[in-house]
Design brief:
This protein is of the alpha/beta class. It has two domains: 2-117, no CATH class; 146-419, Rossmann fold, CATH 3.40.50. The protein is 27% helix and 21% strand. It contains ten helices and 16 strands. The protein has helices at 2-21, 55-62, 94-106, 146-149, 200-211, 231-241, 264-272, 367-385, 389-401, 414-419; strands at residues 25-28, 41-51, 66-67, 75-79, 111-119, 160-165, 181-182, 216-221, 228-230, 248-251, 253-254, 281-285, 304-309, 328-331, 335-345, 355-364. Strands 1, 2, 3, 4, 5, 9 and 11 form a seven-stranded antiparallel sheet that branches. The chain has a seven-stranded parallel sheet with strand order 7-8-6-10-12-13-14, with helices on both faces. A two-stranded antiparallel sheet has the order 15-16. Helix 5 packs parallel to helix 8 (367-385). The termini are far apart. One of its GO terms (biological process) is proteolysis. Residues 156-383 form the Peptidase S8/S53 domain. GO terms for molecular function: serine-type endopeptidase activity. One of its GO terms (cellular component) is extracellular space.
């Protein structure tokens, strides 16, 4: 029964994205609905990504193609020609035919699809939850005890975190969010109900502040269509975020990719931008697919990939991705924090159509929320030690390796990780 429920939720989540993006998006494999493993990845119709130095030979191979404008130096979004070369492999999807043709002539990874990246409660065969109601007046959980948040303690003072997400909605009752800024999100639909994935960025900011009370947070609004955005646009957004001079970038979004290769647009950003900023750290969610397949950008060696612990603190959350590429696991199940005020209609089985009423707080699960918890721990350590974000992250990961959980891996729990730093 649980597997059937997960499958129905999975179908509902992909249906939401297909409705939002229309013919612009395709799913691989084409018969994904009939396969036990479901979809491998979502990608953009009629578009591929190519490193700048390969564009000319790819255009010649494809006998056409037009580079699109925008993006970042190092990677090009190539608009495919109308006609597929006659000797290209047979496939119902013209985009896949171009990709297979490039594989044969140039090798895998020279030409890649433009993948769709999505916030981590989305598109998962074993997804985390939709937001759940909590009683009025319930406090955030987890939250560091007062001694950790007092002046001079590990409160994130002087540290700046930029969150790339669906945007920011002020939650007046959540006093710990005072001073958080960001791009306002389009949180309500035409009927006045909370949209799917709305409040995601607000909840993440709340988790950050519950761990590092005085950290500076800016929430950016990028994942505005069904909680998703294209790879090329995400690379450009990350590049723009560097103008804000963050210490930490928190990204609770990602995707699997074709052949499990590193996402090309993000690979170029990390190699040519992120790695050239001293001390800057990207903390990314490992995804909610209960899979060991690579989930990007969390799987990049340069990122801190965060999986989720179950609420018992001893097991991996059932939905969390896992594997040697996941750097650390942190609490990510049944967290409570700031949310929107209003009514929300569930879109996922078995609760489809159920109406939930929220009063500024919610309970939510996902690697999406374990990620800002780890980002908050990094910020907290920085405010005590004077380390930069990269140094603080490395120290915390080294600490996590000293207390691994059998069958899970390295673990960070807030009070254990920061306890030794208290004055």
């Amino acid at each position: 029964m649980e597997n059937q429920t997960s499958e129905r939720k999975y179908l509902a989540q992909i249906a939401l994205i297909l409705e939002a993006f229309g013919r612009e998006v395709e799913v691989y494999p084409e018969d994904w609905e009939k396969r036990p493993e479901g979809a491998e990845y979502l990608y953009r119709t009629g578009v591929v990504l190519v490193r700048d130095e390969d564009v000319q030979r790819v255009v010649e191979l494809f006998r056409g193609g037009q580079p699109a404008e925008g993006g970042i130096g190092g990677v090009t979004r190539l608009l495919l020609p109308d006609e597929v070369p006659p000797d290209a492999p047979e496939d119902p999807s013209p985009t896949q035919r171009f990709l297979q043709y490039a594989d044969l002539r140039l090798g895998r990874g020279v030409v890649t699809p433009e993948h769709l990246f999505y916030v981590c409660p989305s598109v998962s065969p074993c997804p985390a939850t939709e937001p759940e109601e909590v009683p009025p007046g319930i406090p955030p959980d987890p939250v560091l005890p007062t001694p950790y948040l007092s002046a001079g303690a590990a409160d994130g003072r002087g540290v700046k975190v930029v969150v790339l997400d669906v945007g920011w909605s002020d939650a007046p009752a959540a006093y710990w969010l005072n001073g958080v800024t960001g791009d306002p999100e389009n949180a309500f639909d035409g009927s006045g109900r909370i949209r799917p994935y709305a409040g995601h960025g607000t909840f993440i900011a709340g988790v950050l502040r519950a761990i590092a009370r005085n950290v500076e947070i800016v929430v950016k609004s990028y994942f505005t269509t069904a909680g998703a955005m294209w790879e090329f646009d995400l690379a450009e957004a990350l590049d723009e975020v560097l103008d804000l001079a963050p210490d930490i970038i928190s990204l609770s979004a990602g995707t699997r990719t074709r052949f499990d290769l590193p996402a090309l647009g993000l690979d170029v950003f990390i190699k040519t931008r992120l790695n050239r900023v001293n001390g800057l750290t990207l903390v990314a969610a490992a995804g909610n697919e209960a899979s060991r397949d690579y989930f990007w950008p969390a799987a990049f060696p340069e990122a801190v990939g965060v999986g989720a612990l179950a609420d018992n603190g001893k097991d991996r959350a059932a939905f969390s991705n896992f594997g040697g590429w996941v750097d650390v696991y942190a609490p990510g199940e049944h967290l409570v924090n700031a949310f929107l005020t209003g009514d929300y209609e569930c879109t996922e089985p078995p609760n489809t159509g159920q109406l939930r009423s929220f009063q500024g707080m919610a309970r939510w699960s996902g690697t999406s929320f374990a990620t800002p918890l780890v980002a908050g721990l990094i910020a907290g350590r920085m405010s005590v030690t004077g380390e930069n974000a990269k140094q603080a992250a490395d120290a915390l990961l080294a600490f996590a390796l000293t207390q691994p959980v059998p069958g899970v891996g390295p673990v960070l729990r807030a009070t254990d990780a920061l306890g030794s730093l208290q004055p």
